[in-house]
Structures are given as C-alpha cells and as structure tokens.
Amino acid sequence: MNSAxxxxxxxxxxxxxxxxxxxxxxxxxxxxxxxxxxxxxxxPEVLEISLAKKAxxxxxxxxxxxxxxxxxxxxxxxxxxxPEPKPVIKDKPSPIVQESQPVVETPVITPPPxxxxxxxxxxxxxxxHIVPVAEPVKEPPPAPSQAxxxxxxxxxxxxxxxxxxxxxxxxxxxxxxxxxxxxxxELELDGTGKLKSKKVTQSxxxxxxxxxxxxxxxxxxxxxxxxxxxxxxxFTITVPVPFKLE
Length: 246
Description:
There is one protein chain. By secondary structure, this protein is an alpha+beta fold. It is 28% helix and 11% strand. The chain has helices at residues 2-32, 146-165, 172-177, 207-219, and strands at residues 181-189, 195-202, 235-243. The chain has a three-stranded antiparallel sheet. Strand 1 (181-189) and strand 2 (195-202) form a beta hairpin. The longest helix is centred in the N-terminal third of the chain and has 31 residues, at 2-32.
C-alpha cells in the first residue's frame, strides 16, 4: 500500500516539474522571438552571367587619295623697254704728235770667266801582287830516348830527396823505443813539377815513421822544375826516406 502511494506521488512530482519547465521554456521563447530581426537574414544574391559578343575586326579603310590641284600658270609680263637716247658726237681735238728720239742702249761688257788651272792627279802605280812566303814548318823536337828519361829521373830523384831531407824529423816515440826503417814514397808529378798524388809503396814497419815521411813530402813543396826529358807528360818517381838512429 505504501509503495503504491510513493509511486503515485512521484508521478505527480514529475508531471508538475514538466509543466514548470514547459512554462519557463515558452516564456523564454516569448522574450527572444520578438527581438529577432528578420531583415538581418539576407537572401543569396543571384549572379547573372552574360556572354560578350566577339568584336568583329574593323577593316582598315584607306584614305581617299585627293588628286593634286592643277598648277596655275601665270602669264609672264615683259617689261617695257625705254628707247635708248642717241649719242651726241662732239668734235675731238686733234692729237699732238711728239717726235720721240731713239734711246741708245750702252752694251754691258762682261769679263770672260777665269779659268782655274787644275793639277793633274798623280798616276797611281799598278797594284803588285805580293806572294806570301810560306813559313818553314817547325818540326817537333825528337822524343827523348828511354836512356835520357832514366837519366833525368835519377837526377830529379836526388833533387827531390835533397828538398825533402831538409824537413826530416825523427819521431820521439821511435827514438825512445829504438825503431828504425826505410819508407819508400811514390810521387806522381806533372810536367811542371806539381804534385798530383803521393802514397807509401813500401812501409818501414812502423806507422809513425811512414806518417813522418809523408809529412816531410808536404813540407818540401813546391818541388823544383823537372828536367826537359820529363816535361812532356805526367810521370811517377819513387823517393826512399831512411830512418836510422846514430
């Protein structure tokens, strides 16, 4: 019984609320609708499209040629010539004739031109052809013989030893230890006696003595001029350098 009453009362509340809402909605519409201006709604414009006719090309009309006006030829008016007056002839006086005497011209005497005497040019003697005299051909001197070369080498070797021995100095260490020996030095010289090279061909057995022999050769430079038989080309000569304790 109670549930039926509750359901009935809820339906009544629902209907009442629905009526209230409907009244409020109608009142709101009544207020809004009069303020709506129908003029604000514009109708869509209708676009009208018209097709333009294509302009026809105008034909160019050539201007009418006006014929040239004819030239008006005016008649020439010739001027009237006045008659020339006739000349009046007057009596002319007779001319006075004067006798002219002939003028005698004195001739101008010009002296004859001076003739300068020109000395005749001396005659030149005819050129004489001088025949060049051929110079006698100098024959080269005869080459020295082997005997001459050996003789000159011996003499020049003694001269070199005299020059080298002046610079002889016995090393102190060799003196202290009693080293003795003979070093043979080979020298290569040119035709003027200039030293080209030097070397030890036979050692004394001690390096100190060999070095001393080469130093003596350097100190003896420059060497004397070699003999005529040795001047034609380079030559070699051996010089013995002895080291002996006295």
